[in-house]
Design brief:
Helix content is 4%, strand content 42%. It has 649 residues and is mainly beta. The strands form ten sheets. It has a nine-stranded antiparallel sheet with strand order 9-10-11-12-26-21-20-14-15.
Length: 649
């Protein structure tokens, strides 16, 4: 049968995914009471301790010099919104190994300089050049910009390695703020994820305030300072967010009526693509912007540079925004709404026109890529939305009917990638896309042909790269987070993986095509079974289905899409549980999505050829065995499973 072009009615969501990059700004930012001030000034002090102070009349920011740590932010009568008891309270850091270094590098500067100072803004630099010492082999330049009439700080980092330097592996690059714990107690990640938070002291298991759980990030609050938190579970991974939605988060001091926010107007300087999950804010009070990490992906997305490879990236700018409320209204609602509005203004102003570094191209130095995405499938399935993005050349999937436009593209050579909700697989445009400054490139019509070898016999789930549609059990009453009760993200509750052993104490899950319902009968994660005494065993799920006729000479196809895998080995057998597997994934995955309350990690698609002789007329059974079982978190999540009959072409 000839392929027939189908145009899915979908919305196109564009992402520009350089592994890392820079950002932009709006000319003036609001302060809620309308305060405006004069030009920012720079003051350097040497005793006691070397310090650089920048003051624009709205905020006063103190930096250690030449290290470049933010030591103080004075705002609206608060002498320091940061934690005065910690040395590291506003800082960049990086984990990795290379040369004589292994571990965490606080990337403190060794030199200070003023990049620019005028009536509109001050830009300062704290930098460190690698000289063969014990630091990670990178040149690092941390930049801070404070503008007139702006209640906030823009910060970006320039990271560089030269080709002759030692090999380097980088697992994490981030920007971290530790806020004043006496003032900031209310945290906001999203409209439906905000709450009064416990304190860092409440998590202290050594003082007996909390009980350790299955991994160090999760604790049960047994003796918190406020009884409303008693027996609740606190875990920073309950507050992670996909990059496409991770534009603003932060903390509110309800008593001082002040908000502290981290705003990321672009995802171009973050690795992993639009649906990669990252940390946001959590108990501390802590607020984080992560640029590169292995969160929910494992080592697959760590950056490795070998001898001869040069690397230079601009990370940020990120906007540290402060706002205040002088009304008598609820400050949490007003400050959050204002932070969201400010985020819209930052996104609109991207890329910023005030960044001094020549490594950060302005709007006119960037290009535009346009095109039209069509879906070619033998079976028409309406798509919901598509993600289209540019990234450095690589394999399809390496970045994890309407027209698309990708604006403000940095000059360079790229691949065009995409995926469409409702269809399996990854798309990669066959040609490289070369973008020059000021160019406008039209790719005309781009056709994506999702993997398919024949008509669908049956399917389980929805191809959306998550396990969200499957059965997620209720949490344990004594280890829950009340924020996620009756919430669309109920999978973020602690301990849900243990429910499988209760639901299936002796026999594993059996799913019957035509009778079972995947939203009720397909557990969200294929995990091990706890048989007591910290002993876990492999589990084997069954899919039972009927075939009125089998084409013995033909080849069927099992399309098996995984949303997550953690130290797993999935074996697939047909009609004989004890035969040699027809297919095995081998040992795959370290994304930890099960333990970290994610509903997806790294997407994997396997198109498994099934010779007709493995099937029979009448009842058939597929055995899915997750064969690794040394603990509770070895397992996987399914995105979508489909059996296709042989091609009729």
């Amino acid at each position: 049968m000839m392929l027939q072009e189908k145009m899915a009615s979908i919305s196109i969501i564009c992402f520009f995914l350089l592994l890392l990059l820079p950002i932009a700004f709006s000319e003036t930012t609001r302060n809620l009471d309308g305060t405006r001030a004069s030009a920012p000034t720079v003051q350097q002090t040497r005793r006691p301790g070397r310090e650089v102070i920048v003051d624009n009349g709205i905020i006063r920011v103190s930096f250690s010099s030449p290290q470049g740590l933010i030591t103080g932010i004075k705002y609206k009568g608060i002498d320091n919104v940061l934690n005065p008891h910690l040395r590291a309270r506003g800082y960049w850091d990086i984990t990795g190994q290379g040369g004589n270094f292994r571990g965490l590098d606080s990337i403190e500067g060794t030199n200070f300089r003023i990049i620019s100072q005028n009536e509109e803004q001050v830009e300062i630099s704290f930098y460190r050049n690698w000289n063969g010492g014990s630091h990670i082999p990178l040149n690092v330049d941390k930049r801070y910009i404070i503008r007139k009439n702006t209640p906030g700080i823009y910060t970006y980092g320039i990271f560089e390695r030269l080709p002759e330097w030692p090999e380097v592996d980088m697992g994490l690059i981030r920007l971290v703020f530790k806020l004043n714990p006496d003032r900031f107690h209310y945290m906001v990640v999203a409209d439906d994820r905000q709450r009064e938070m416990p304190t860092d002291n409440d998590r202290d298991i050594h003082l007996g305030h909390a009980k350790a759980l299955a991994y160090k990030e999760a604790v049960q609050l047994t003796y918190p300072h406020n009884s409303i938190f008693k027996n609740q579970v606190d875990d920073k991974y309950q507050y992670t967010c996909e990059i496409k939605d991770n534009k603003v988060h932060g903390w509110i001091s309800t008593e001082s009526r002040v908000g502290f926010w981290l705003i990321s107007p672009s995802g171009e300087y973050r690795s992993g693509g639009p649906i990669k999950q990252e940390l946001t804010s959590h108990v501390g009070p802590t607020a984080i912007t992560t640029f590169i990490s292995g969160h929910y992906v494992g080592q697959d997305m760590e950056t490795h540079y070998r001898t001869g490879e040069a690397w230079k990236k601009v990370l940020g700018p990120v906007f540290i925004y402060l706002n205040s409320d002088s009304t008598n209204n609820n400050p949490t609602d007003l400050l959050w709404e204002d932070a969201k509005q400010q985020t819209k203004e930052e996104v609109k102003a991207w890329p910023y026109d005030f960044v001094a570094s020549s490594d950060y191209p302005s709007r006119k130095e960037r290009g535009i890529v346009t095109g039209r995405l069509l879906i070619n499938d033998r079976v028409f399935t309406p798509g919901k939305s598509a993600y289209v993005g540019l990234a450095p050349p690589g394999l399809a999937g390496s970045w994890q009917i309407n027209f698309f436009t990708i604006n403000n593209v940095r000059p360079g050579t790229y691949n065009l990638y995409g995926f469409v909700s409702g269809f399996i697989g990854d798309f990669r445009y066959q040609n490289h896309v070369d973008v020059a400054a000021g160019s406008k490139i039209s790719l005309s019509t781009v056709v994506y042909e999702p993997p398919r070898n024949g008509p669908t016999l049956w399917e389980i789930g929805v191809p959306d790269r998550t396990a969200r549609e499957f059965f997620v059990p209720e949490p344990y009453k004594n280890t829950m987070n009340p924020l996620f009760l009756n919430h669309t993200d109920k999978f973020r509750q602690y301990g849900l993986w243990e429910r499988y052993s209760e639901l299936y104490p002796d026999r594993d899950l059996v799913y019957t095509i035509g009778a079972s319902n995947y939203s009720q009968d397909w557990f969200y994660a294929h995990v091990t079974r706890n048989i007591g005494d910290s002993t876990y065993v492999p589990t084997t799920w069954q899919i039972v289905f009927q075939l009125p006729y089998v084409n013995w000479r033909g080849s069927y196809t099992l399309q098996l899409a995984l949303a997550s895998a953690a130290r797993a080995n999935l074996q697939v057998r047909f009609n004989n549980e004890y035969s040699m597997p027809l297919f095995s994934t081998g040992n795959i995955g370290r994304d930890n999505a099960i333990a970290r309350h994610g509903i997806h990690g790294i997407y994997r698609l396997y198109s498994i050829n099934v010779p007709g002789r493995f099937l029979r007329t009448g009842t058939n059974t597929i055995y899915l065995r997750q064969a690794k079982a040394s603990g509770p978190f070895e397992g996987l999540m399914y995105d979508y499973i489909r059996l296709e009959e042989p091609s009729r072409d």
